[in-house]
Amino acid sequence: MANARVVVVGAPDDLGVREVLIDGRSVGKVWSEQEFQSLLSREGVPADHPVRWLGEDGTVWPDRAGLRRTTGAFMVVGLLATAYPLFKIGVSDSGDALTYGGRLAGFTILAVALVEVLAAAAAVDFWGGRRWRHSGVAVLVGVVIALFCSISILLLQIGEHFNRYTAIGIALGVWSVAALSELFACRAWKRLPVPRSIAIGVVLSVLLAGSNLAYSQIYVPYVKTPLIQGGAEFKESNMTKGGSLYVTVHLYVRNAGQVPVYLLGSIYWIHGAPANPPDVEATDYDLVYDGEFVTPVGRVLNPGEEVAQDAVVEIQEPENRKKHPYETLRAETEVYVIRKDRMTLAADYPNSRARRAQIMKEDGKDAPIGAKYRNRSQMENSSEILNATRGPQRITVWRVDSGNWPRFSVDVSPPGVRIDYNSVDPLLNQKANARYGLSQQRGSMAQTPYRELLEKASAIDKGVTPSTPPTPNPPPPQVQ
Is the pLDDT of residue 79 over 60? Predict the structure, then answer.
């Protein structure tokens, strides 16, 4: 018959599905005789219509539905399991990352998560009906992304503590290898029409994304460095007859750089000291007074901002030279800061101060020798992906009494990790210094003669304004 329709059934593919063509046009794919008859009925072709069979005849339907659906479910679950943490990280970083580069990376991760969801939908088609020509390629791309994510997580975990993302990275790695083995066995890429152009596009995309991340996450943060300036200045002094000497000292710290910082703690020292011959050492200084001058602790110091305070120092029996054999009074400051663009300090840090009794109860022998008080709180990294790979972090700032030079001891570590503060270890905070810009900033030193302070204070006490000695009259000219 001239109008007879030509029905052709293709050979079974690797999963057992057979493509049906009517008059040279593909009308669908079928897994069994029942599906084939249903397709003919929908197309208006009689059941007894002649059929041309390619490869195998109508008795061969090699589909193993149970295994096929199990394989498809295995792929879908793995791809969605990859998409979930990517969505979680991407949503957090796209809105809350501390830097523009971090937010841009968050949007990139969101896009990758969307690709994983599309790959999961393609897996349903690839192991369901293969109605989309490139579903196998889409699944292959999704599995490769999952393998890349697994490798990245495990590489970032080197030197870190085991956490749930470590387990996720291992699980994704095992799943990715098994999934790739299955995709290679069924040649999922065989319907890719232009593999070379797509491969070039993938390579270019990876290079562009890698360049962007390297620029935003490595280069930009390190070309901007904090510049913290501080110091002390002696102001007026006064005393009552036979009483104490009161000296006012102006203390300040300012952010002269381009990076905001958290002020974790501050300290100033007032020392009685000899003059400055070459053989004067730190042990020659006698601590008169010390304290902190930036409150509350944990406050943010933005670029161009300054914090200042005047401290009044009392010296009892100031004219007792045996008790105070000073040539000069010396004032110095020191602050500990950490970069605000690399971490977020918890809001409870200023209120977390614990004194000696609480320290002995909570920390015991784990506290530094001479600990007077401490502030401690959780901290967040600059992005969720760093929180995922580094795990939770805790910062502790100890104020330690150590003779004439009280000091701070600062620790950044996972909660529950014991730090041996009582051993001499200059590399204790090296990792934190590099990651978070944790730094110790010593201010400029101010020094004034001790006797001059006494003279000015005595003069003020007597109601006399100190003045400079009168200039002697020039000698009369000699008579020749």
Answer: yes
Least confident of 67-76, 81-90, 207-216: 207-216
Q: How far apart are CA 444 and CA 464, in angstroms?
A: 32
Residues 206 and 243 in one domain: no
Largest CA distance in the chain: 154
Lowest model confidence (mean pLDDT) among 93-97, 212-216, 298-302, 369-373: 212-216
Q: How far is CA 318 from CA 245, 324, 331, 428, in A?
A: 6, 7, 17, 42
CA-to-CA dists, residue 39 to 13, 47, 51, 122, 251, angstroms: 18, 10, 13, 22, 87
Give Cα separations from 150 to 117, 120, 145, 181 (angstroms): 17, 17, 9, 16
* Cβ proximity of 76 and 120 under 8 Å: yes
Q: What does DSSP assign to residue 468?
A: P
Look up residue 188 and give its two tokens. 């999922």
220: which residues sit within 8 A by CB, 6+ positions away? 99, 101
Residue 480 within a domain: no
Closest residue by Cα to residue 222 from 196, 259, 185, 248:
259
On whether both 36 and 94 belong to a single domain, the answer is: no
The type of residue at 460 is: I
Q: How far is the C-alpha of 229 from the C-alpha of 214, rounded, in Å?
A: 30
Please say whether the dihedral angle defined by the alpha carbons of residues 22, 28, 32 and 35, taken in this order, is positive or negative. Answer: negative
pLDDT tens digit sequence for 194-249? 555 555 666 566 666 666 655 655 555 556 778 899 999 998 888 876 678 889 99
Q: Is the pLDDT of residue 260 over 70?
A: yes
139 is a domain residue: yes
Q: Token pair for residue 38?
A: 């249903």
Burial 119-130 (b: 16+ CB within 10 A, else e): bbbbbbbbbbeb
Q: What is the DSSP letter of 365?
A: G
Give yes or no: residues 449 and 328 share one domain: yes
SS3 content of the chain, % helix, strand, coil (to 5): 40, 25, 35
- Domain range holding 19? 7-53
Listing DSSP states for 36-93 in one string gives: HHHHHHHTT--TTS--EESSS-TT-----HHHHHHHHHHHHHHHHHHHHHHHHHHHHH
CATH of the domain at 252: 2.60.40.10
**pTM for the whole thing?**
0.68
Residue-wise pLDDT for 452-474, tens only, equals 888 887 776 555 444 444 444 44
Q: What is the pLDDT of residue 155?
A: 82
The radius of gyration of the chain from alpha carbons, rounded to an integer in Å, stands at: 38
Q: Indicate if the pLDDT at residue 475 is higher than 50.
A: no
- Shared domain check, 299 and 283: yes
